[in-house]
Write a structure and sequence with these properties.
The chain is α+β, with helices and mostly antiparallel strands. It is built from nine helices and 16 strands. The strands form three sheets. Strands 7, 8, 9, 10, 13 and 14 form a six-stranded mixed sheet that branches. A five-stranded antiparallel sheet has the order 2-1-5-4-3, with helices on both faces. A five-stranded antiparallel sheet has the order 6-16-15-11-12, covered by helices on one side.
Length: 422
Amino acid sequence: MVRWFRAFHRPATVRPVASPGVPERDVGMPSRLTELRMAVERIGTTLDEGVTYAELTREAAAQTGGTAAVLRDGSGAGAGYVAVHGDPAVLPDIRRARVAAKEAARQATGPDEGRAAVVSSGGPRPVLCVPLVTDGLRYGVLVCARDRAPFTGTEAEFLALLTERAASHIRHSREHERVRGIVGKLQRALLAEPGRPHPNLDVAIRYMPVGQSALVGGDWCETVRLHFGRTLLVVGDVMGHGLEAAVDMTAYRSALRYIASADLPPHRVLRQLDDIAAAEPERRPATCLIARLDPDRGQVTLASAGHLPPAVIDGEGRTSLLPVPVGPPLGTGLGGYEPATYKLSPAQTLLLFTDGLVEHRGEDIDHSLDRLAGVGFESGVGVEGVIDTVLARLDAAHAEDDVAVLAAQLHERSLLPGEVQG
C-alpha cells in the first residue's frame, strides 16, 4: 500500500525540489494523500444503493479522465450499465465488458479480493474493470473507459480502493433494508385489528404512529363484545415508542381480551391488568381508559388508569370532557381504580383518545384539553366524520407522539313488541 501511495503522482509542470535528507519521491505526498482520502470519503454518504453507485462512477471518472459506469450482474431487466458518468459511447459493448468482468471476478478471491482489476486493451479503447467485492459478496463491476492512453497499474489500485469502499457501503445498505423489512413484517404482525362491536353501536378507529418508518407503536384501541348487547371500548398508551413498545402493547391487548371475557366492570378489568403487568418487571407501564357501553340502558361506565378523560360531542356538535377518577398507570401494582357512569344518547358521540392527539411539548395539559373542547362539529356527523374533523383541527399529522382515536355512537333503540316509548 505504501508503494502504491508513493507511486500515485500526477505529472507536475514544475519539478519540486527535495529537502536535504528527504527522498525525492516523497515530496508533495501529504497533499496527495489528503486528496485521495477526500475522494474515498465522498463515496457512501447515504444508505441509497443507487446514490452509492453514482458517487463511485463520478469519482472514478474524475480520477481517470474517462467514462465510468457500474455493470450490474445477472441477465434480467436490471442487468447492464447503471450510474453512467461521462460519454456512454466510450464504454465497451456489454459482451466485451462481461468478458473482462468475469476475468476480474476470477481474480477477486482470497485476502486481495478488493484489489483485483483487469485492464483490457483488445478493443478500440482501453478498458478497466474492477469488481465491487467485500467479504466474498459481489455487487457488480466498475467499468472505466477512455480514448487516450491505457490505464496504469496505479490507477487500477486506486479504483480498487474506491470500489472496495462502495461495496462495503452497498452491503451495509442491503443489510439495513433486510432488517427494515423484518421489522416491518413484525410490526404488521403486531398490528392486530380490534374486535367487532355489537351491531347496535357504530365505532370508528384511527391510528397514526409517529415516525416515517413506523407502522405500530405503543398506542392501541380495542373493542370487545360483552353479554346483553354491551360493548367494551378501550384505548391504551404504553410508555415509549417503536417496536419495543408495540411488543408490550400486544401483551396488554391479549391480557385485556382474556380478562374481558369474564364480563367484569371496567375498574375491575383495570385492577387485573395492573396485577398481571406488575408481576412482569420488564413490562413497560401503560395508561388505559375503558368504557363499557350499554345501549339498552343508554349509559356508559368508565374507568381510567392514568389516562386522559374522554370527550362527548352532543347533537349540536359541541364538545365537553367527561370527568373520570384517575387511578395509577398499569404496571405499578397500586390498584385503586374507580368507575364513573354517565347517560349516553344516540345523538351523542363518545370520543376516546391517547395523549398524542392533544399534547404539545411545553404546553400545560389543561390547555391542551381545552383546545379539544373547543373543536366544533357539524350536527349529525357520523363517527368517521368526527375522527376526520378532530384529526384535522388538532393537526394530528404533525403530532409529536403516537395518536390513537376511537369514536362511538349508539343506535336508536328499537321498541320491543308491546313496549311503550317512555
